[in-house]
């Protein structure tokens, strides 16, 4: 694995109490943003088939840390991110901000989204081609605060922090006049102008050239260090997670199956799915690539037992049988992992937990 960028948390500022969530103030030790037993179900036509896009997730983000949510396409990570942003309402479970349950009234969501901002994957699609850079960055400010005397100062500050200097040079430019990296910086500036405490970045560098990816990742790290920002970075790229994250949550078929520090998860993965994902990285010293058997995951037909067992290379090789856990893999659900990924519950795998107390609930 390649050398990591510096990801030492700066320990962000104490979040100010706001009107985005219901309840009383929570102690400082609680996560800044978290979800508990979260489920999001989408009904098909006629209600005959339902897709369990998020199927029981506990996840916690603490102030000043970057958490990478990784997994293959269709695993539910974008739906989970949208639910944490309040863009999807959970079927069951809860989302908490500063220890207080998120409310779903228009007023509560507007206040919440000022403090928790989204950075999309495709800057070309998220920027209005008819708006100048200045208008694009000022838009969120105008929505949340209306006309302010310091608007131009805050737009200039946001553009500068996003690496577009001098900011005045970009005010009157349109998205088509910018490079891909510059457009992504404009999107980030549009989030920063509201001084949020959390950024949710959905594949923030997937559409960028390799030469620009490192610059944007370095920018996200500097924002964490300088502003104390907390970030959830949604990605299918474990190499990106290695370079930017403090903790990693690996998602498969609607559920987090492994969680821990980036060194724990990516240097010594315990779940067979994580091992398979890592085995195909060019820089990983993991031997031959693992070719998963079986069909891709289907959220409308989640299998019984461990949801990964039909594709699991450990089960297919007979290793689970030799360890005496094969029957449990096929019939017993490993359970939902705790949000913080404590030692006892950081992997949802009977084979990886063999000899330890079961952590299912």
Structural write-up:
The structure is a single chain. The protein folds into two domains: 55-104 and 236-351, Rossmann fold (3-Layer(aba) Sandwich), CATH 3.40.50; 125-228, P-loop containing nucleotide triphosphate hydrolases (Rossmann fold). The two termini are 35 Å apart. The protein has 13 helices and eleven strands. Helix content is 31%, strand content 19%. The strands form two sheets. The protein has a six-stranded mixed sheet, with helices on both faces. A five-stranded antiparallel sheet has the order 1-6-5-2-3. With 361 residues, it is α/β, with parallel strands linked by helices. The protein is globular, with a radius of gyration of 21 Å. Belongs to the ABC transporter superfamily. Residues 33-278 form the ABC transporter domain. Keywords: ATP-binding, Nucleotide-binding, Transport. GO terms for molecular function: ATP binding; ATP hydrolysis activity.
Question: Major β-sheet, in short?
Answer: 6 strands, mixed
Beta-sheet strand percentage? 15-25%
Strands across the major sheet, in which order? 7-8-9-4-10-11
Domain tally: 2
Order of helices and strands: EEEEHEEHEHHHHEHEHEEHHHHH
Give the termini separation.
Answer: 35 Å
Low-confidence stretches: 5-20, 22-28, 357-361
Q: Output the CATH topology of the largest domain.
A: Rossmann fold
Cα-based radius of gyration, to the nearest Å: 21 Å
In percent, how helical is the residue content?
A: 25-40%
Give average pLDDT, whole number: 87
Find the count of extended strands (DSSP E, 2+ residues).
11
- Indicate the CATH architecture of the largest domain: 3-Layer(aba) Sandwich
Top CATH class of the largest domain: Alpha Beta
- Gross morphology: globular
Name the structural class: alpha/beta
- Enumerate how many helices there are, as a single number: 13
Biased composition (Low complexity): 9-23
GO molecular function, one term: ATP hydrolysis activity
Keywords: ATP-binding, Nucleotide-binding, Transport
Protein name: Peptide/nickel transport system ATP-binding protein
């Amino acid at each position: 694995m390649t050398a990591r960028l510096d990801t030492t948390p700066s320990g962000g500022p104490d979040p100010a109490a706001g009107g985005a969530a219901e309840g009383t103030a929570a102690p400082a030790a609680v996560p800044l943003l978290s979800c508990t037993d979260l489920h999001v179900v989408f009904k098909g036509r006629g209600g005959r088939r339902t897709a369990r896009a998020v199927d029981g997730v506990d996840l916690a983000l603490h102030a000043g840390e970057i958490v990478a949510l990784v997994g293959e396409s269709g695993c539910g990570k974008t739906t989970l991110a949208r639910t944490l942003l309040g863009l999807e309402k959970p079927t069951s479970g809860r989302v908490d901000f500063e220890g207080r349950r998120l409310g779903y009234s228009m007023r509560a969501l507007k206040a919440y989204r000022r403090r928790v901002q989204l950075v999309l994957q495709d800057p070309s699609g998220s920027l209005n081609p008819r708006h100048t850079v200045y208008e694009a960055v000022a838009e969120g400010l105008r929505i949340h605060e209306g006309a302010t005397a310091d608007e131009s100062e805050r737009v200039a500050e946001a553009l500068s922090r996003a690496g577009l200097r001098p900011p005045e040079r970009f005010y009157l430019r349109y998205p088509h006049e910018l490079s891909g990296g510059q457009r992504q910086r404009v999107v980030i500036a549009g989030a920063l102008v509201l001084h949020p405490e959390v950024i949710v970045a959905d594949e923030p560098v997937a559409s960028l050239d390799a030469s620009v990816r490192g610059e944007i990742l370095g920018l996200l790290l500097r924002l964490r260090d300088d502003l104390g920002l907390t970030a959830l970075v949604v990605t299918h790229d474990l190499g990106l997670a290695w370079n930017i994250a403090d903790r990693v949550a690996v998602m498969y078929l609607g559920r987090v199956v492994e969680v821990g520090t980036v060194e724990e998860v990516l240097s010594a993965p315990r779940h067979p799915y994580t091992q398979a994902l890592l085995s195909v990285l060019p820089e990983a010293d993991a031997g031959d690539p693992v070719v998963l058997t079986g069909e891709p995951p289907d959220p409308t037909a989640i299998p019984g037992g461990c949801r990964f067992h039909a594709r699991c290379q450990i089960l297919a090789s007979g290793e689970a049988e030799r360890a005496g856990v094969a029957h449990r893999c096929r019939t017993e659900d490993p359970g939902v992992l705790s949000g913080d990924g404590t030692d006892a519950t950081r992997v949802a795998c009977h084979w990886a937990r063999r000899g330890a107390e079961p952590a299912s609930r």
